[in-house]
């Protein structure tokens, strides 16, 4: 008697709204035999997202949410334990989508700057904690590598977008000397891209690949929720009409493309909205990679330092 393959387990951070939600819709409506887990910080918002997703899911697919507050390393560890315990068959894909742009300087309970912890540190930690599950997942679904996708932003590059260019320094890593919400969003995405490259290199030729995708500029999402009213109105009604802008559905589709067989077969690639591209020069600098990888490992309490 033929055995039924277990559903492929896909884990996504966020996904109850925005670009991640659009990607989740595509996963559930166009793939088959998939179980999608969303890591969400607010149970009410998570439930609303999940019930909308259930309405579009193909018959063979299922979706649930589990609690995940990325501003807390303890919550990230609990979420990873929950995933490891719930899915002994492993996981097939990890999409690190959640993100925010904190406009005022806030320190998390772990004493890191909010943008840096939510957008980079916590999701790096989650990727490391779920590596054993991703390896097990490859044994369960051996046809293609297990895959980690970092949702990046082209704003990690100098000269892209408006405002101050990224300026990631050890001296001001917590924003105590100078703080600007956009600058720290950009710094967090730069640190993420920098560590993505070393993580991919550390897993070279193994069963898990690591790539990044910038979904394009999507002015209509809630990423701007902490901006002033005038900015939010302008983004929704004027800036969203310019040719450089994408819809949330287009952004979600770009993230979705990154989990396809051909793209997950690659390792260490930075995709942008046109296809395979390049992350910033700074993020590809081996000295910077070593510096920020070591800082990141120390911050999240992992000891895999690059010598
Ligand atoms: N919009 C753009 O132009 C753009 C461009 C490039 C890259 N990106 C990236 O795309 C990703 C998705 O952004 P989006 O535009 O879709 O924004 P969004 O609509 O605000 O969605 C952000 C998601 O992240 C979740 N989240 C935020 N803080 C969290 C925390 N502390 N713990 C757990 N989850 C948290 C949110 O949950 P709640 O619903 O609970 O708030 C939501 O599900 C982000 O990584 C962003 O940096 C966006």
From TrEMBL:
InterPro entries: NAD(P)-bd_dom_sf (IPR036291), SDR_fam (IPR002347)
Keyword Membrane: no
Gene3D superfamilies, A to Z: NAD(P)-binding Rossmann-like Domain (3.40.50.720)
Electron transport is among the record's keywords: no
Record GO terms (molecular function): oxidoreductase activity
Keyword field: Oxidoreductase
Signal peptide: none
Family annotation (Pfam families): adh_short
The protein's name in its UniProt record: Retinol dehydrogenase 13
Organism (species): Mortierella polycephala
